[in-house]
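Table 4 source record.
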Amino acid sequence: MLSIGEVAARTGLSVHVLRKYEREGLLLSPVRRDAAGRRLYDPVDVDWLRNCVRLRDSDMPLADIRRYVELVKAGSGTERERVAILQAHRTRLQDRRNTIDGALSLIDHKIGLYEDHLESGATDAPWAEPVHAVIE
């Protein structure tokens, strides 16, 4: 069994966030306590919390994670809904990736223009190309 401090160190979550996740119902099993009332975690809890961290890092809403946890706890027969939650989140991530890729293309294009301008020693405006050009 692990203390809350050990779990915080292994997951990168603060003690405060661990307590919040417990209150939010994001753990698969109830947190046990020792005779002094200190929280005790199983190594399985650490693995689960690492998954939660990864999902939160990808901006999955806590409500979706909570529902996913509920379904995992409910066991067999909930797999379709679990997949639906993950697929919906994957679609959101893919949309965000496409937006970011478009922004990176624009930035790379602009960097190239400025680098070419600087390398050529040109003295005219570096934005001689139409400012409104859209980069796909």
